[in-house]
Design goal:
RNA binding; Ribosomal Protein S8, Chain: A, domain 1; 12 helices; 6 strands; K Homology domain-containing protein; KH_dom_type_1_sf; alpha+beta; nucleus; 2 domains; KH_PNO1_2nd
Length: 215
């Protein structure tokens, strides 16, 4: 009897105990993530974007306030954004700030709004002098090569790389996915260095074919 009881004790010890049910956690609200504190962001408004901002204010306000659940207002030459009690995710605040910042850089609202809808998009900026030091007429010709006649070159790069490009004097802003931005930046840098547009077009055609096969 003692041996049987010992065998039963060993068997019961080796049998796995039933695991408790996995806990289910509800998503945290933005105000819960920040310990109930309101999160703020401020985006400066350049003087040349006052009028475009005024005209496009409703197009900017509507998705930020109603879809992202983020408060937005214009005050002291800055666009201020803050979280609300019903903001579903604290990242919505940063997305909204990126959206407004992209508009201030010169992107159209219809292009900048993609930053609210897609996580893998961002904006990269650089200056012509970061690639090559140019002055006077040489700088003007480089800017002309980037745009092309009637913006033909810029549109070709945008369509081939699925990006949007803004050329603001000597600064260049590119909106898109990481890999696409790299391709667009390389094409723009080649133009700045003096490569003819035809050579850049041929490279873009090869890149477009590769991107089409990938997707």
């Amino acid at each position: 009897m003692a041996e049987e009881s010992t065998e039963m004790d060993i068997q019961s010890a080796t049998e796995p105990e039933s695991l408790p049910a996995k806990p289910i956690f509800k998503p945290l609200k933005a105000h819960e993530m920040s310990d109930g504190k309101v999160q703020f962001r401020k985006v400066s408004v350049p003087p040349n974007r006052y009028t475009p901002l005024e005209k496009a204010w409703l197009d900017i306000y509507t998705p930020v306030y109603h879809q992202m659940k983020v408060d937005i207002r214009m005050k002291s030459r800055k666009v201020e954004l803050k979280t609300r009690a019903d903001t579903p995710d604290v990242s919505n605040l940063q997305k909204s700030a990126d959206f407004v910042h992209a508009f201030m850089l010169g992107f159209d609202v219809t292009d900048a709004i993609s930053l609210l809808r897609m996580d893998e998009l961002y904006v990269e900026s650089f200056e012509i002098k970061d690639v090559k030091t140019l002055k006077g007429e040489h700088l003007s010709r480089a800017i002309g090569r980037l745009s092309g006649k009637g913006g033909k070159t810029k549109f070709a790069i945008e369509n081939s790389t699925k990006t949007r490009i803004v050329i603001a004097d000597t600064r260049i802003h590119i909106l898109g996915a990481f890999s696409n931005i790299k391709i667009a930046r390389d094409s723009l840098c080649s133009l700045i260095m003096g490569s003819p547009a035809g050579k850049v077009y041929s490279k873009l055609r090869a890149v477009s074919a590769t991107l089409a096969e990938r997707f």
